[in-house]
Design a protein that fits this description.
With about 230 residues, this protein is α/β, with parallel strands linked by helices. The chain has helices at about 25-35, 90-100, 105-115, 135-145, 160-175, 180-190, 195-205, 215-230; strands spanning about 1-5, 10, 40-45, 50, 55, 60, 75-80, 80-85. α5 crosses α7 (about 195-205) and α5 crosses α8 (about 215-230).
Length: about 230
């Protein structure tokens, strides 16, 4: 879920003690990576997440809980790159992780580390890492997507085409569920009706094609609005 700038990984619980999931064998795999010759531990994490409509960084300065302690730091991967931090100093680790963080949060992360005296005041975010944004990734991958060589699931999937169309719409609906205004906008958009056949299949898949109550009618329009909003994504 999160990675601290010193390389600790948080994946099973929040700092208030709320359990999100079991640790499973994660710690065992990481410790084995340090025990076996030539082995490495690779942790992947999204650079950000959206909670109640607000984007927050998954790379943080510190956190009140750890699943994998910082002394077992190794390779961390986000959509913005790879930080190989095994055997690196704290300052080197911090610099590498800031470089794969979302640019909207890099300056705050750097300031926290500098205030703590963990990285020098003279260190600056390299220019090539100052454009770590979702839009930059979208534009970089657009030619490949347009050429049809970068499908959503390059290694195949059990999701049907209808389900693949539903996934971004449901995610969009979830991300806007915190705001009554956003939901109202989706509802109004949904009133415009079905724009493409796959939307009809999507409503059928969610058992909302023929609503039998006011609640189902509202849910249908909200889903249609989300389908319209994500039609080009």
């Amino acid at each position: 879920m999160k990675v601290t700038l010193l390389g600790a990984v948080i994946s099973d619980a929040l700092e208030d003690g709320a359990v999100v999931s079991g640790v499973g064998g994660q710690y065992n795999f990481v410790s084995q990576a340090f025990a076996l010759d030539g082995a490495r531990s690779i942790m992947t994490v999204d650079a950000t997440r959206t909670h109640k409509g607000k984007t927050i960084s998954n790379i943080v300065w510190s956190y009140g809980h750890e699943t994998i302690p910082w002394h077992l730091r190794d390779i961390i991967v986000t959509e913005y790159g790879i930080a190989d931090v095994r055997g690196k100093s704290d300052a080197e680790t911090i610099a590498a992780l800031i470089c794969i963080a979302d640019s909207r949060f890099q300056e705050d992360l750097l300031q926290n580390a500098q205030v703590a005296g963990k990285i020098g005041r003279a260190w600056k975010i390299p220019e090539k890492h100052e454009s770590n944004t979702p839009d930059h990734i979208t534009q970089a991958l657009l030619p490949a997507r347009n050429d049809g060589i970068l499908p959503e699931f390059p290694f195949g999937t059990d999701f049907t085409p209808t389900e693949q169309r539903l996934l971004p719409a449901l995610d969009h609906l979830k991300n806007n569920s915190h705001s009554k205004r956003a939901l109202l906008n989706l509802f109004v958009t949904g009133l415009k009706g079905i724009k493409e056949p796959v939307e009809c299949d999507a409503l059928d898949r969610m058992k909302l094609k023929d609503p039998s109550s006011l609640k189902e009618f509202i849910l249908q329009k909200l889903l249609m609005g989300a389908l319209h909003r994500t039609s080009s994504s």
